Amino acid sequence: KGDYSLDYKEKEQMLSTGMTMHIDTLTAPELNVRDASVSFALNQLDARGYEDFMTLYTQTVNSTIQDIAEAQDDPEKMKTLMEQRMGGVGLQMIGIYEKMMKKGLELKIVDMKATLPEGKVEGDLSFVLTQDITFAQIGPVTQKPDLAFSLFSLDSNLAFPAKLAQDSPMLTAPLFPGMQTGIFIQDGSMLRHQAKTEDGTLVLNGHKI
Length: 209
Fold this sequence. Notes:
Elements: E1 2-9, E2 14-28, E3 31-46, H1 47-71, H2 75-100, E4 106-116, E5 119-129, H3 135-143, E6 152-161, H4 169-172, E7 185-187, E8 190-198, E9 201-204, E10 207-208
Antiparallel strand pairs: 1-2, 2-3, 3-4, 4-5, 5-6, 6-8, 7-8, 8-9, 9-10
Helix pairs in contact: 1-2
C-alpha cells in the first residue's frame, strides 16, 4: 500500500513531495516482516532547479541512447562517448545542484517501523539545510567535518534488536576522536541511536562531539 503527495507553492517557487508505504506481511527465505511502514518527504525543493535537473536528465538519457546506437557494439567507442558525455553533464549538474541546495530544503523519514522475529525496528530522521550551500563550501568540510554542522540541522533516532547486528563492534565503539559512544549504544536487547545538532555542534546519544 502507498500514498503519494505533491504540493507546489507558486509564489515561492517551491515543491514539496511525500510518499507513505505500508506492508502488512513480507515473507521470503530468512525474512519475515510484519506491519512495516515508512513515510518519506522532500520539502522546500527549488522548483526551477528541479525543472532544470529533469530537463538535463531527459536530454542525457536521449543522448545516451543515440551514443549506444552510434557505437554499434564497439566497446572502446562507447567508453569514449560516455566519458565525453558524463564530463559535460557533470559540469552542468554542479550549477543545478546549487540551485536546489537552498536554505530550508528538508529531507524527512518518519514513522519508520517494522516487526521482525527478533523484535521491532523504529526510526525517524529530519535533515534541513540552514543556509544556501555551494560546492565551494563543501571542500573545507572534507578537511574539517565539524564545519558541516553549521550548514544543516539533523535530528535522527533509530532502534533495532541487537541480534540483527551480529555483535558488530563497529556500531557501538567510538570511531573518531571526541566521540564518547559509538553510533549506537546498547540498551538491553536493543541498539539505539539518537543524534541532534545544537548550536552548530552534534549531540550523539546524549554527548556533545
